[in-house]
Amino acid sequence: MAVAAAADYFFARPPLGSAVALLLNAFPFSRTSAVRPTLEHCARLLDQQWSILLYPEGTRSLTGAIGQFKAGVGLLAVELEVPVVPVHLQGLQQILPKGRIIPRRGPVTVNLGPPVTFPTGTPYDTVAQCLEEAVRSLPTSATVDVTTVARP
């Protein structure tokens, strides 16, 4: 799994970018410009059988509430013709709050939905809206607490 991390934040300072890449297997993801190189890099990763973890809100939540999805997730889904698995990670605002660069330990709950695909030509903002609705509708009863699973 390769984790898309904001190029303008996590990779703006070389020591932090190196640490994020090494520890989280993250790669720089442009939130503002240079979309083509980011799209091409994602395509290469997918061609090499990598899964990509993308945070479609484009920023971390202060409260844990799901933010509005950006059209970039739609661009990736449509242009790369890949299925998207809706995922809701609950508790990350405590693990790596906005403004911190060193994560804390704590519980995280993962909710997964079924893969979703979109036909070529679907408007990117429509895809983003559909995916946001899919994440918001994930049943909380189907959660797995990864802190329980991860402990020996």
Element layout with pairings:
Layout: E1 2-6, H1 7-10, H2 14-24, E2 26-29, H3 35-47, E3 52-53, H4 72-79, E4 87-90, H5 92-95, E5 109-112, H6 124-136, E6 144-145, H7 146-150
Parallel strand pairs: 1-2, 1-3
Antiparallel strand pairs: 4-5, 5-6
Helix pairs in contact: 4-6
Structural description of this entry:
With 152 residues, the protein is an alpha/beta fold. The protein has one domain. The chain is 38% helix and 14% strand. It contains seven helices and six strands; from the N terminus they run E-H-H-E-H-E-H-E-H-E-H-E-H. It has helices at residues 7-10, 14-24, 35-47, 72-79, 92-95, 124-136, 146-150, and strands spanning 2-6, 26-29, 52-53, 87-90, 109-112, 144-145. The protein has a three-stranded parallel sheet. Strands 4-5-6 form a three-stranded antiparallel sheet. Helix 4 packs across helix 6 (124-136). The protein starts with a strand and ends with a helix. Residues 148-152 have low confidence and may be disordered.
Report a brief summary of the structure:
The protein is an alpha/beta fold and 152 residues long.
Order of helices and strands: EHHEHEHEHEHEH
The share of residues in extended strands comes to 5-15%
Radius of gyration: 15 Å
Uncertain spans, ≥5 residues at pLDDT below 50? 148-152
Number of helices: 7
How many β-strand runs?
6
Keywords:
three-stranded parallel β-sheet, disordered C terminus, alpha/beta, three-stranded antiparallel β-sheet, 152 residues
